[in-house]
Structure formats: C-alpha cells, structure tokens
Amino acid sequence: MLTLRSRVGALALSVLVVLPLAGFSLTGEPECEKYDEASGECLVTVPAPAPSDPPPGDTTDPAPGDGGGGAAEPCVNFLDEVKPCTDGDSWWSNELNCYISETMYDFPKGHPIWEGNTTGAIYDCYDPDIIGTRMGTFWSQNPPAGPAAPPDPRVLAQEALAKMNLRAPKIGIAPKDEAGSVGLVGLPVWMWVADAGARTWGPNTTSASAGGHTVTATGTVDKVVWTMGDGNKVTCTAKGTPFTPDLGVRKSPDCGHTYSTMGEYTVTATAHWTVAWSGMGQSGEIPMTLDRSTTIRIGEAQAVKTG
Fold first, then answer.
1. Looking at residue 305, what is its pLDDT?
2. Rounded distance, CA 208 to CA 29, Å?
3. What's the pLDDT tens digit per position in 109-154?
4. CA atoms of 270 and 294, how far apart (whole Å)
5. What local confidence, expressed as pLDDT, does residue 149 receive?
6. Sign of the dihedral defined by the CA atoms of residues 296, 30, 166, 286, in that order
C-alpha cells in the first residue's frame, strides 16, 4: 500500500489515500477506521483502477477482475487470431468477439433498446476487420468485461471525492472557547460555520479520468447537526449567522441554542455531505460526515445584595 495526499494514479493495486473525512462508502453510513493523529484526517483505503491500455507492442491485458496480478488474458477472436486489445476508446471482448464502445447514437430512454431500463448505457459491438463494421448495439448495466475493459465508474467517483480534500467545518460560536468568555443560563448561544467554502461547505466539483473515461462528482453540505453537550441536538440547514457584539442579546436567526443549566459543554458540529457523481452512463451518491468539536462555558447570573 502507498500513502498519498494527491490524486490516486491508475495503479493496478489498492492505494491508501489520506482524506480529511470521517469515512465514506458507496452504500450505507460512512465510518472511519483510522485517523491521522496529527491532522485529524481520516485514512481511507481506495481501490485504484487497473490500467486500461496495454504497454506499447503488447497485445495482452490483465484478465477481468484479476487487477493486474496473475496471468494475462490474450485478446483473440473466435479463430484464435490475436487482436489489439484496444481500438481508440474501445476495448476487445473475447466473449462477444468484437470491440466494445459506448454508442455514438442518441437513443432516448424510452427506446426499446433500453429494455425498460433507465440506468446503464448503450454499447456498440464492432470489428473493423469485418465489412460493415458495426455488428450490433445493446444495453448493459455495466461496461461489458474484456481484457481492456474501462474502469469501474464507482472507483473514479471515489478518486474524484479524494481530490476534493474536504474538511470538517471550523466552528464559530458565541460564547467563544477562550479564557474569560462565558455565556449565561437562559441567554442565546449562536453557532455558525466560520470558514464556509468549497472544502468545508460546497459546492465542490472535481473529476477523475482513466482510459479515456471521466466521472464528475459534486459535493455539498445538506445540513450541520450541532450536538450541544447537554443532551440536545440542533439541526441547521444554513451556514449560520456570525455573532457580533452590536447584535446584543437576541436569538440567532438561523442556528442557535439556549442552555438551562450552568456548566462546561463540549459542542460538536457534524457536517452531512452528499457527493453526487455521474459518468460512463451511470450515477450515484456518496454520503459522508465530517465533524469538529469545541468547548464552551455557561455560568449563571447572581444577584448581589448591598447595604
């Protein structure tokens, strides 16, 4: 394994990518198994796609699913004649005995060739050595396998996500987490994202490519859930409004809380992201969360009797 802090290359192995997030997956809730203690970033293993083009002069490629390890499968037709594994952006399929590529024709989703499906893609099957070239057009949910098949679009979506370098939001809160700053029971507390930008709030759009194919992903924050440390959670769909002293004693217009007892409270802001991706005739979403914590102090006003 390799530890990288940049774009994952098209390597035929699994690569450890440093992501500043609590984890991600293509399905289910994201989790983080290991953190970088120094930066607070999450270390996530991302499988890199196998090379899609053979070395110069080579007519073989890794067999489907073998990830570059093990025996290479030759590209041959039904007469056992060796064929180049790629022809431009197309790849040879031993099973279908032709080159495969996404079709050049625009078939609407209601066309019978889609077989009632709305996902996947339409592919052409052709062999330039045969008169007429195009031998058939068909629908498939995933790119048909072959020695030089294109990369998995979900892997490219993961690469695009890694390139975003997303981070947990910096907490803005009043009272502040600093000496001498104390809130009072019954008075409003204001919360906001102090550094809202592409990496902490979105939208953030990046792309990843391999073998002439591209997947584009866009990440945005849907909400920030503030865990206030007193058993309450506050969900804010807005960034929040920064507090300034001239605002006086009033509630935040979009993201605030009030404590009923004095004490020291750990406040955690959890940003919920949705990263939507599309490309190669497919699309999907990657849910993920990023969080950061701070501590505030709440006191109680005391009446002082004089005289």
1. 54
2. 23
3. 899 999 999 888 899 888 877 755 557 889 998 888 766 566 788 8
4. 12
5. 63
6. negative
Q: Which residue has the tokens 């032709």?
A: 98
Residue 289's H or E segment, with its range, is: strand 282-299
Pick the CATH number of 3-49+153-299 from 2.60.40.10, 3.30.420.40, 3.40.190.10, 1.10.760.10: 2.60.40.10
Domain range annotation of the chain: 3-49+153-299, 60-140
Summarised one tens digit per residue, pLDDT across range 22-51 is 333 333 334 455 545 544 544 443 433 333
Considering the entire predicted model, what is its pTM? 0.56
Q: How far apart are CA 139 and CA 258, in angstroms?
A: 57
Q: How far is CA 237 from CA 55, 195, 270, in A?
A: 50, 16, 12
H helices within the chain, ranges in order? 153-164
Report the candidate in 114, 41, 123 with the shortest Cα–Cα distance to residue 90: 123
Residue 153, classed as helix, strand or coil, is: helix
Q: Quick check: helix, strand or coil at residue 154?
A: helix
> For residues 276 and 76, what is the distance between their CA atoms, to the nearest angstrom?
38
Distances (CA, A) of 202 to 8, 16, 206, 235: 22, 24, 11, 18
Each residue's pLDDT tens digit, 217-228: 999 999 999 999
Pick from 192, 193, 205: which is nearest to 165 by CA? Answer: 205
CA distance 66 to 105: 32
